[in-house]
Amino acid sequence: MRATRGKYGWIVVGVLLTVAGCQFSDGDKGHETGALKPPPPPASAGTAAENAKPGTPDWKLHRKGKPEEIEGYADRVSVLPGETFRLFVSTTTPGFSVEAFRMGWYGGAQARKVWSAPRQAGARQPEATFAPDTETVSAADWKPSMTVPTKDWPEGSYLLRLTADSGAQRYVPITVRSADTSGRLVILNATTTWQAYNLWGGRDLYQGPSGYSDRSRAVSFDRPYDKDGAGKFMAYEQPAIALAEKTGVKLAYATDNDLHGEPGLLDGATGLVTLGHDEYWSSAMRTRVTQARDRGLNIAFLGANAVNRHIRFGDTKLGKNRLVTCYKDAAEDPVARTDPAESTQDWRLDPKPRPESDLIGVMYNCFPAEGAYTVRRPDHWLFAGTKVKKGTSFPGMIGPESDALNIGGPTPRPLEVLAHSPIDCGGVPKTADSSYYTVKSGAGVFASGTMRWVCAMRGKLCGHGVTDAAKRFTQKVTDTLLRAMTAGPLGRAHPAKDEYGKISQSGF
C-alpha cells in the first residue's frame, strides 16, 4: 500500500510512519436466479460433522502451464447453498474438466471434493476489454461455459479446479455463504483485497503497463484471477481455515462483498474472523462491523494492514457489487468534492480522516517490514499453554507489512499490548504490536499486528526464516482465541486492563 500523512500523526513509540509501497508477490448477489433461498443447514451438518467425512488429498494443482491454456471466473463471488452460478472458461485446448473442493481440515487432507462435471467443450474467449476512464479491465464479454449447481454443497470456502485437455490447471474460488450466522464465528474471505491485487489483463489497483500512473482506479470481478487463480486465498487464508475447522467450533462463511451487501449478515454471530490480508473496506463494511462490535460481536484481525483502503462498490453488466473503486488519491476521485465521506483513499487521510485504529486497536505502520515476533505479555490468557516468556521471539513472523499502536490517534480503551516487536522497516527501525481490547458491550478485539500470522501456521513452509516453533505458537494462540470467541463476548471473561500509557512512555 501507499499512504501520505493526513490529519492524524502516525507515531509509533515516538517514530513517525514512513510511506511505503505494498506490491509484493506471494454480498455479491450477481445475477438473480429467481429461486427461493434455501433454509440454513441443520446443526447436525456443522463444521465438525463435515470434517469427519473423508478428505481428498489430491486437490492441488499438478501443472499450471501457460495462462492461456486454461483460466476462468465465476459470475458470483458467493452463493447460498443450493444456488447456481455460471462459470466462464477460456482455453486453447478442445476441452476441459472441473472439480469443486471444499476447503477445511478433513483429518489433514485439507479439502474434500464435493462435485465434478463431465468433460466440457473448450473455446478461446475474447481478449479483455478496457474502460479508459478508470483503467478497468474486464472479461464480461466472455460467453458462459456452464452453469454449476451447488445442491448438497455445505457452506464454506471452495476452490474449483479447472483442468484443460493439455493437463494445465487453474483455480477459481467461490464461497458458499451462510444464510444464518447466529451463534457462529464468521470466517470472512477478503475478496476485495484479492481483486485489488489481481493483475489479470495487465492492470490492478497498483500498476498498469507503465507502472503506477496507469493503474486501475476500479477493478472488476468479471475476470479471472492471475497466476494460479487463488494465490491470495492460499497465502493468507487457507491455513487459518484449516485450523478453524479442525477446532470443531461453529463456523459461518461470508465474503467482503457479502459484508457490504447484506445488512443483517452479522446478526446473532458470536465473532468475526478476518484473515491474513483484508485491506479494502467500504463504508458499509466498516459501519456494520463497528455496530456489531458495540452489540457484543468479538473480532479477530489475524493479519495486518486491514481496513486501510476506503472503497466504493459498483455494479457491472454481470451483477451487483462486482466493481471495486479505489482512486487512492482524493485529488483524483471526483466524489471527494461532492461526498467527501465516500472519497476513496486511505481511511486515515483527508478529506474525512477515520484511522482504522478506531476499530482494530492498532494500525498499519510499515512496508517492507521484517522482524521477529517478540512476546511482551507471556501471562496473557491468549498465550496460555504456549510456554512463552517475556522476550520470547519467533524469527521472520513480522512482515511483509505490520501494524502498531497509534499514539496520538483514536484508539479504543482499555487496550493491552501482547507483543511489542522491533522491526526493520526498509532500513528504518520501528516496532510492531499485537493488541487486545474490550468495549462496554463485552466484545473483545484481537489484532496480530503482522501479515505473516496465518503464514506462520505453516511453520518452515512459510519461508522468511519462520520456524516450526512459530507454527506451534500461532496455532495454539489462534485455537485458544477462536474457542473463547464462540463462548460469548470476550470482555466478560477476559476484560482488558489498559496499557496504552505504559507503551507510549516506556516502549516495552
UniProtKB/TrEMBL annotation:
Region of interest (Disordered), ranges: 30-66, 335-354
Domain N,N-dimethylformamidase beta subunit-like C-terminal: from-to ranges = 98-458
Chain segments annotated as transmembrane = none
One Pfam family from the record? DMFA2_C
Cited InterPro entries: DMFA2_C (IPR046540)
Q: Quote the protein name from its UniProt record.
A: N,N-dimethylformamidase beta subunit-like C-terminal domain-containing protein
Q: Which organism is it from?
A: Actinomadura barringtoniae
